[in-house]
Structure formats: structure tokens, C-alpha cells
Amino acid sequence: MTRRWKQAALITTAAAALALALPATDASAINRVGCNGRTDFVNIYNYGFSGHLCFANAGYTDVTIYSVDNVYSGNNLLYYYTSLNGGVTRHLDPWTWEDDNYYDHGAEGTVRWLQIF
Hints:
The chain is α+β, with helices and mostly antiparallel strands. Strands 1, 2, 3, 4, 5, 6, 7 and 8 form an eight-stranded antiparallel sheet that branches.
């Protein structure tokens, strides 16, 4: 019986040590903000500039933004996923515009997620 208790204690100790050794994942701090003319935010424009969304802070978020026409990275390194061409991940360096690249057989693209660094 003592051997089983020792094994149980060893397994419990090993499991606790493993749990403490694993790195904690960072919480996503990305959030939607008012644009207010700011050029340092990620800016996403709908077709014909009919809508305008801005995002700030590093992190990852799932979004669904339809009819995207232009994306501006602001002072951020930006990765995002667009539905065009069967779905592609795109990358923008800081202070970079990507415009009019969202047309796929006459349809505008949908952005599905953003990751800001």
C-alpha cells in the first residue's frame, strides 16, 4: 500500500510541476477603437470608403468585416485573413496601405481575423 501512495504522490508532483512549467498564453489585448483621424491604428475601409473601422493594441481577434476595400497597417505589423482566392493570409509592414486588391470575380473580400504585433 505504501508503494501505491508513493507512486500517486510522485505522479501528482510531476503533474503539478509540468503545469507550472508550461508557459501561460498572453491575453489578447487587441480592441476596436474610434478612428478620430488617427493614423497609427490599423484602419479597415469598406468598399468605396462607405465604412471605416480601427483597431489598436497587439493581439489576435476573430472578426467578420464584409466588402473590404482598403487596409492600412498604421504603426503596426499586421497579419490578417481574407476570404479572397479561396482564403489567404496577408501581411502588412508598418505604415503600409493595401488597396483595391480585394476583388475576386467582382466580389469584395471579407476579413476574418486580425493579428497585430
